[in-house]
Inverse folding.
């Protein structure tokens, strides 16, 4: 038997509870993994508190991230004992996820554990760090270098935003972090932010173009924050958009695109192809500062996760939460 968080829906109500499960109940897949660590992402918190639309069918084990050891494999690439990780691909949405002691999934979703990182570090990075790296790669592909000018990052107190600040600073960029929590100033500076701005700095003024201030941006918030970011990027700049913590809409004109040649690059980590995942994880293993990463991490037991989820959605959790299963 193994422990799992299970999201159930009955009479229109979503509940998430700890349950004991028989391994025979695991879904189909060619690799069975003893999960050692998972993590708590915004999407996991949405799944646990609201169910749909993140959860496509019930009952569902949440957890878009997992790291652990292969127990059984029908995939020739993996053998029992191999250390592996998986993020996305519908884990915790369509396929039972990582917030459980065991998982069974297709081998093509698994990556080998990156050399030089502990299981706690790998899940501390998790989807958030992986997505932040995809955003950094998008800025680079847009032609940005540290010499281009400052980069603005929204939602910096959270997982993706904090990882983006840390990675950009490590790569030599001048990073300006935007947060709704003034008390995080010292923490964000310690992650490498050269400056910290309040959320109001990205409040809309109603103008199609704002003063051009940033060479690029990484946005996890969406809505007016993303719109203002696009409108305040300098000529030829790139904005990578990956989140909706502030909303799904985008109240924007075409002015930044046709007058400043701005590039808006969407980022999806879930269906990211395997070769690009390998590239991003190799870079994470190389570019992460272990001390700064450690300062972002909190540890939690599986039973604590349902209580943490609403606090994460309310924007009260700093950095990343690693969930320990072993
Ligand atoms: P976190 O909850 O860890 O961080 C989100 C941060 O956004 C908060 O800490 C807060 O930062 C800020 N924020 C929250 N609500 C608002 C608001 N209403 N207005 C402005 N800022 C707000 O979440 P994650 O970092 O895990 O995820 C961030 C977003 O990115 C989510 O929308 C998530 O779904 C998305 N995401 C997308 C991925 C993809 O593949 N496209 C992958 C991973 C995440 P502060 O207090 O510092 O302002």
């Amino acid at each position: 038997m193994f422990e799992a968080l299970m999201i159930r829906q009955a009479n229109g109500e979503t509940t998430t509870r700890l349950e004991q499960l028989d391994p025979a109940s695991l879904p189909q897949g060619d690799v069975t993994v003893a999960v050692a660590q998972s993590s708590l992402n915004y999407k996991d918190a949405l799944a646990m508190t609201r169910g749909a639309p993140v959860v496509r069918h019930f009952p569902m084990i949440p957890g878009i991230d997992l790291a652990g050891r292969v127990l059984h494999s029908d995939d020739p690439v993996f053998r029992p004992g191999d250390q592996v990780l998986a993020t996305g691909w519908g884990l915790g949405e369509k396929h039972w996820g990582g917030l459980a002691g065991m998982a069974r999934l297709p081998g093509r979703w698994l990556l080998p554990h990156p050399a030089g990182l502990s299981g706690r570090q790998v899940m501390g990075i998790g989807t958030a760090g992986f997505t932040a790296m995809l955003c950094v790669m998008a800025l680079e592909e847009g032609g940005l270098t540290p010499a281009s000018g400052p980069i603005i990052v929204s939602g910096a107190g959270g997982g993706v935003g904090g990882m983006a600040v840390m990675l950009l600073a490590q790569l030599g960029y001048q990073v300006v972090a935007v947060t709704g929590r003034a008390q995080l100033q010292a923490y964000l500076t310690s992650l490498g932010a050269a400056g910290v701005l309040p959320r109001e700095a990205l409040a809309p003024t109603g103008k199609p173009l704002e003063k051009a201030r940033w060479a690029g941006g990484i946005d996890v918030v969406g809505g007016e924050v993303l719109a203002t970011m696009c409108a305040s990027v300098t000529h030829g700049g790139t904005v990578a958009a990956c989140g909706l913590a502030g909303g799904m809409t985008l109240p924007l004109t075409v002015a930044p695109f046709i007058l400043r040649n701005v590039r808006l690059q969407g980022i999806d980590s879930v269906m990211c192809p395997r070769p690009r995942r390998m590239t991003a994880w190799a870079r994470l293993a190389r570019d992460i500062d272990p001390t700064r990463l450690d300062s972002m991490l909190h540890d939690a037991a599986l039973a604590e996760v349902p209580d943490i989820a609403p606090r994460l959605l309310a924007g009260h959790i700093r950095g990343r939460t690693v969930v320990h299963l072993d």
